[in-house]
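Chain A, query sequence.
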Amino acid sequence: MDNFEFSIQMEKDAEALYRKMAENAPAEGVKKVLLMLAEDEVRHRVAIEQLQKKMAVEPAKGSALDIKTVFDEMKQDSSITDISVDAVDDYEKAVEIEQRGLKFYKEKFEESDDPADKKLFEVLMRQESYHLHTTKNLLDMVRRPEWWVENAEFDPHDSDSY
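Chain A, predicted structure.
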């Protein structure tokens, strides 16, 4: 499997995980965030496929500000403190996937000499970094819901494209 196919498969796997987690989401706000992450993974996959075909790749608008809004709303949702910790394994897996993706894209960025490739990998690194931050917030929320509601700070750095 070459780097492109590996990257495409990583994005497909992440999308599938987020959609599965959304089906079992304990609260509507969590479901909304997970579906936004799944859609971002679809955009990542399409960007990689475009690069594979050597098409021009432009950074796409991400869901950072939308997710921030949902997190802010969720802090007001009393059902958040009732989230079951049974799903912790899935949330930990999501963090791991984002960590692997970020590491992989950093390596590809450093290896690449092509400016278009570097541009794509730079965008993907920012997006994966943002997703890592998001999944860590979700993990904190399911591990310690009362603490999360009182203390969570979710800041996408005022960017709607990561």
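The chain has a mean pLDDT of 75. Residues 3-151 form a domain with the Ferritin fold (CATH 1.20.1260.10).
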